[in-house]
């Protein structure tokens, strides 16, 4: 309901989103699992405008942080009482993290997602993504002045830099 409060709904497509109705699975544009858990919202192409509440918008960041801190147990239903495969849990978190990368060109194709869910290629794709992230992080870590001062320490690099900056 807090999502609905932030949206302008000129055509009333969310009218049946009623807080008095206990089962949100009966609401329009809400997708539920066989266990009656909300697993998706289909809000596109309905003239809805507004902002997504920050708790929902920050969900990916939260899951990424939980993954980095190796606290994936926080994402598991308590009723399972540790009766689940931790490796599968790790994989099931990695796939959506790959799919929600900032740059669409870094996201896997749907066919790759299917393969990863079947157990093919996830480890390789995850490692490649982690390496690329580490490289981007290190590149952003240094300011341009730090990068320039590194060049002045090595005369051969300085000569190369001067040659590159010469007339073209």
Automatic annotation (TrEMBL):
Alphabetic keyword roster: Leucine-rich repeat, Repeat, Signal
Pfam families per the UniProt record, alphabetical: LRRNT_2
Residue intervals of the Leucine-rich repeat-containing N-terminal plant-type domain: 3-33
Coiled-coil residue windows: none
Alphabetical list of InterPro entries matching this protein: LRR_dom_sf, LRR_N_plant-typ
This protein's name: LRRNT_2 domain-containing protein
Lineage: Eukaryota, Viridiplantae, Streptophyta, Embryophyta, Tracheophyta
């Amino acid at each position: 309901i807090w999502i609905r409060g932030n949206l302008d709904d000129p055509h009333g497509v969310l009218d049946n989103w009623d807080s008095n109705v206990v089962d949100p699975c009966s609401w329009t544009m809400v997708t539920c699992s066989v266990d009656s858990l909300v697993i998706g919202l289909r809000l596109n192409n309905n003239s809805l405008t507004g902002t997504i509440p920050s708790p929902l918008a920050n969900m990916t960041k939260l899951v990424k942080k939980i993954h980095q801190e190796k606290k994936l147990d926080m994402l598991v239903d308590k009723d399972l009482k540790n009766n689940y495969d931790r490796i599968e849990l790790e994989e099931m978190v990695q796939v959506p993290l790959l799919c929600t990368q900032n740059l669409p060109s870094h996201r896997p194709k749907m066919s790759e997602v299917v393969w990863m869910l079947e157990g093919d290629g996830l480890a390789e794709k995850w490692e490649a993504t982690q390496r690329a992230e580490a490289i981007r992080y290190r590149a952003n870590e240094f300011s341009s002045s730090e990068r320039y001062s590194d060049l002045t320490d090595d005369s051969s690099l300085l000569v190369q830099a001067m040659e590159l900056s010469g007339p073209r």
